Amino acid sequence: MAKTIIHKADSRGHADHGWLNTYHTFSFSNYHDPERVHFGALRVLNDDTVAPGRGFGRHPHDNMEIVSIPLEGDLEHADSMGNKAVIRKGDIQAMSAGTGIMHSEYNASKDNPVKFLQIWVFPSRQNITPQYSQVTLNSSDRKNTLQQIVSPRANGATGVTIQQDAWFHLGDLDKGIQLTYGIKNKGDGAYLFVLRGSVNVEGQLLNSRDGMGVWDTDQISITADSDAELLVIEVPMNLD
Predict the structure, then answer these.
(1) How far is CA 223 from CA 146, 179, 203, 210, in A?
(2) pLDDT band at 109 (very low <50, low <70, confident <90, very high)
(3) What pLDDT digit, counting tens, does each position of 136-169 carry?
(4) How far is 21 from 13, CA to CA, in rounded Å?
(5) 3-state DSSP percent of the chain in helix, strand and coil, to 5
(6) Domain map (residue ranges) of the chain
(7) Cα separation of the two ends of the chain
């Protein structure tokens, strides 16, 4: 019998700083819940809206895998590795902070907000040389299926790579579509986060911005209860 945990959208941590309106699925910054620190190797799932022309100034990270998924608008990135880019909906960005990086993220628009998911995953190796990757994906390739956007290694696979045995997938599903997600590594779990609409996961109805962790199973049944967008994050549950 699969084990599950559900995090309803309205149970998330929330902070409105004026320039930043952010929701935290897991403990972050001033939000701390000892029952919601991480799901396996998944440490942070932040749902951020940044006001026009504002953003996160230059700040440090180390020994963390950081994935950004833009949902709306243009996010301007710069880092100490020399990377400068604007990431938009359809793009996926990943940074392996390793021994340490500095970076900044700003809303590139003076008129419109930018919305994106910021996701942190514990790395499988400490103190590696920092790395950066970014891709633009064809969103039609996730229509009524799950499109891989993050994996542990390239091998010709779609998406970016991170330093952890983790896989991210996005699905854009029509109402009534049924899928099965097969767990890739024994002992892994999957965290499912609904971006839009309603999805039934293992008999549990999830609505927009609800999250659900599933583990101790080989596969997960997914049915779109309405037209819906879904993010699936598979991670090791054991951090040793």
Answers:
(1) 12, 6, 9, 15
(2) very high
(3) 999 999 999 999 999 997 666 678 999 999 999 9
(4) 11
(5) 5, 55, 40
(6) 3-236
(7) 24
Q: How many Å separate Cα 228 from the centre of its chain?
A: 16
Is 164 within 8 Å of 236 (Cβ atoms)?
yes
For residues 129 and 26, give the distance between their C-alpha atoms in angstroms, rounded to a whole number: 27
Q: Is 148 exposed, middle or buried (0-12, 13-18, 19+ CB in 10 A)?
A: middle
Please give the Cα distance from 152 to 165 (Å, whole number): 5
Percentage of residues of the chain with pLDDT beyond 90: 96
Instruction: For the full predicted model, state whether its pTM sits above 0.70.
Output: yes
Q: Give the per-residue pLDDT at 106.
A: 95
Choosing among 2.60.120.10, 2.10.109.10, 3.40.190.10, 3.60.70.12, the CATH entry for 3-236 is 2.60.120.10
- Which residues, 6+ apart, have CB-to-CB distance to 206 below 8 Å? 6, 192, 194, 198, 199, 200, 212
For the chain, what's the residue count?
Answer: 240
Q: What angle do CA 228, 109, 46 make, to 5 degrees?
A: 45
Give CA–CA dist 220/125, Å, rounded: 28
Element (H, E) at 229: strand 228-236
**What is the chain's mean pLDDT, rounded?**
96
Instruction: Give residue for tokens 């952010």.
Output: 22
